[in-house]
């Protein structure tokens, strides 16, 4: 049986943690597609380029290497903000599409999380989920994550970053952040990580049982 699960949602909505746990539950490989955009931005900046240079960003996207995605420098808010600038460029998105579709096409299936998985990357996914939470809950979670790593970033800076990035992702014309019409919705504002996982698993099992 093949199972492709698409998990989309705004910045810091918890979709990454949920996707990792759902992948492990179903024994499927997981791709955090945000890392691809973060790595493209990193590669452009490392080579001294500009994030809105279409040719440079597209070349970096075409040259993306899976082994470079496991880089702690990709995790911070600066990398996320830079990612959302290159993510507006249609040529960048097109260059990353093959990589994502090849990943999703593996025997048995895969779990992918991002902004446009259910709408553009895997419109035929068996399960689509759009994960949300209030701006404040998302900023607070990211604040605790950074604190846990000993990084000193203010809650208010994180809230501003999340709102700016969401607006950029929602308002762009190329594959904007959007719930697919057939996506199930999960609001995790009032849920802790375990409750969110249980709620998502129930949604997925109900959906699979109904097919
Ligand atoms: O982890 P977080 O939700 O903060 O962000 P991320 O998933 O790592 O994504 C970083 C940025 O990459 C987003 O703000 C989007 O601009 C972009 N992105 C995208 O455009 N499409 C995707 N499928 C995934 C990420």
Q: Could you please describe the fold and organization of this structure?
A:
The chain has 211 residues and is an alpha/beta fold. The chain has one domain: 3-Layer(aba) Sandwich (Rossmann fold). The protein is 54% helix and 12% strand. The chain has 9 helices and 5 strands, in the order E-H-E-H-H-H-H-E-H-E-H-H-E-H. It has a 5-stranded parallel β-sheet, sandwiched between helices. The chain is globular, with a radius of gyration of 16 Å. Bound molecules: cytidine-5'-diphosphate. The site of cytidine-5'-diphosphate has 17 residues, from helix 2, helix 4 and helix 8.
What would a concise description of this structure say?
This protein has about 210 residues and is α/β, with parallel strands linked by helices. The chain has helices at about 15-25, 35-45, 55-60, 75-85, 90-105, 115-120, 135-150, 155-170, 195-210; strands at about 5-10, 30, 110-115, 125-130, 185.
Topology diagram in text:
Layout: E1 3-8, H1 15-26, E2 30-32, H2 34-46, H3 54-62, H4 77-86, H5 90-104, E3 109-114, H6 117-121, E4 127-132, H7 135-148, H8 155-171, E5 184-187, H9 193-210
Parallel strand pairs: 1-3, 1-4, 2-3, 4-5
Identify every distinct bound molecule in the structure, by name, code or SMILES: cytidine-5'-diphosphate
Radius of gyration: 16 Å
Q: pLDDT under 50 segments (min length 5)?
A: none
Name the CATH superfamily assignment. P-loop containing nucleotide triphosphate hydrolases
Helix tally equals: 9
Helix and strand pattern: EHEHHHHEHEHHEH
CATH topology: Rossmann fold
What's the rounded overall pLDDT mean? 96
Beta fraction: 5-15%
In total, the number of strands is 5
- Biggest sheet record: 5 strands, parallel
* Secondary structure category: alpha/beta
Helix fraction bin:
40-55%
**What gap, in angstroms, lies between the N and C termini?**
13 Å
Give the CATH class. Alpha Beta
Q: Main sheet: which strands, in order across? A: 2-3-1-4-5
What's the overall geometry?
globular
Number of domains: 1
């Amino acid at each position: 049986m093949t199972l492709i699960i698409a998990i989309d949602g705004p910045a810091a909505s918890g979709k990454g943690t949920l996707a990792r746990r759902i992948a492990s539950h179903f024994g499927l490989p997981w791709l955090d597609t945000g890392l691809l955009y973060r790595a493209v931005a990193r590669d452009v900046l490392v080579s001294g380029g500009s994030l809105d240079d279409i040719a440079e960003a597209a070349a970096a996207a075409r040259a993306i290497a899976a082994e470079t995605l496991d880089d702690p420098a990709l995790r911070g808010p600066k990398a996320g903000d830079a990612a959302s600038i290159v993510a507006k460029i249609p040529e960048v998105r097109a260059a990353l599409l093959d990589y994502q579709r090849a990943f999703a096409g593996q025997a048995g299936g895969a779990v992918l999380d991002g902004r446009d998985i259910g709408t553009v990357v895997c419109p035929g996914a068996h399960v689509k989920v759009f994960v949300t939470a209030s701006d404040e809950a998302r900023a607070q979670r990211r604040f605790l994550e950074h604190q846990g790593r000993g990084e000193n970033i203010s809650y208010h800076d994180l809230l501003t970053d999340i709102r700016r990035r969401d607006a950029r992702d929602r308002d762009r014309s190329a594959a904007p952040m959007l719930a697919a019409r057939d996506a199930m919705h999960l609001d995790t504002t009032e849920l802790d990580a375990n409750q969110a996982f249980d709620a998502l698993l129930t949604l997925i099992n109900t959906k699979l049982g109904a097919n």
